[in-house]
TrEMBL record:
It comes from Leptotrombidium deliense. It comes from the Eukaryota. GO terms for biological process: isoprenoid biosynthetic process. It holds the Pfam family Terpene_syn_C_2. Keywords: Lyase, Magnesium, Metal-binding. This is Terpene synthase. InterPro entries: Isoprenoid_synthase_dom_sf, Terpene_cyclase-like_2. PANTHER family: BETA-PINACENE SYNTHASE-RELATED (PTHR35201:SF4), TERPENE SYNTHASE (PTHR35201). GO terms for molecular function: metal ion binding; terpene synthase activity.
Amino acid sequence: MASGNILPIALKRNRLLQQMLLSANNYVSYINDIYSLRKEVKHDDCHNLVAVIKNEKNVSWEEALDESAAIIQQEMKSFCEYEKILFEQSWMFDKRCKNILKRYLVGVKAFMRANIDFSIKDSFRYNEILKINVNVEQHLR
C-alpha cells in the first residue's frame, strides 16, 4: 500500500512491478546506509552497505562510498527503466488498474524522496552528512 492505494492482485503479481519495488526498497535502504554510516561504524554495526564494501573489497572509505553511490544510482536507473517498461506494457491492465498503479507509484516515489529529505534535514541521527554524488532530483519530482 502506498498513498492509500491498495493494489489489485493482478498488479501485486506483476514481476516488473515487484522488481521495481525491490529497486525502490534497495534505494531507500542504501541511501540510509550512507547517511547512517558514522553512527553505525561508531556502534560496530557490520550490516551497512558502505562498511561491507570497504571490508569485503579492502578499499578506502571514500572508494566504498563511491561504489555505494554507484549502486544507488543503478537502483534508481533500474527503478526508472522498470517503470517505463511497465507503462509500455500497461495495455494488459484495465483503466482502473492503470489509475491505481499511477497513484501507487506517486506514493512510492514520495516515500523515496521523503527518505532523503528525512536523512538530510530532519534526522538528528545523521547530523554529519556525507556528501555523495547521487543525483535523484530529476527522478523524484
